[in-house]
Amino acid sequence: MKHPALFLDRDGVIIENCSNYVRSWADVAIFPQAVAALAAVRDCPYRIVLVTNQSAVGRGLISQATAEAINDRLLAHVRAAGGRIDAVYMCPHGPDDGCDCRKPLPGLLLRAAEELDIDLSRSVMIGDALSDVMAGQAAGARAVLLRTGRGGDQERLPGAADLPPFLVYDTLADALPAVIESP
What we know:
Elements lengths: L4 E4 L23 H9 L6 E7 L1 H4 L5 H17 L6 E5 L15 H10 L7 E4 L2 H10 L2 E5 L4 H5 L11 E3 L2 H8 L4
Parallel strand pairs: 1-2, 1-4, 2-3, 4-5, 5-6
Helix pairs in contact: 1-7
């Protein structure tokens, strides 16, 4: 039987966005409410999957190994706080590279669904940008926009009204209890 998933963007959802890119662990500012929310849903039946665009790699600002080390350290922090993230899928490409994994395209979610036996129709994509909402919708998942990170500004963009309906919450701690349901 396929599993539902909670697909989570990283920057603006679990950690603060960094205007000059997250280039090292020193740039990481974790949202305490997000880590607490992940601990609270540790035993839920959903796979919890981080899906993140990291164009700093494609732009040559950091190496792939550095990006992976930052993600690994974040997962260790979440685990130490009692939370769970089951997998990380990262697009390392720049915006002009023409890949199929950079959100708003659904490539990361589709790959995770295939590799982790995920039922996309029972899954949720949670992010702080319209590109996250679009990726979730393109993959066939429900979409949630958080007002943390860029979400408050993204919600007011003219393009937001042109998308199919999506849910909006202030924080990950607000969203998770509301979107998790029995599979």
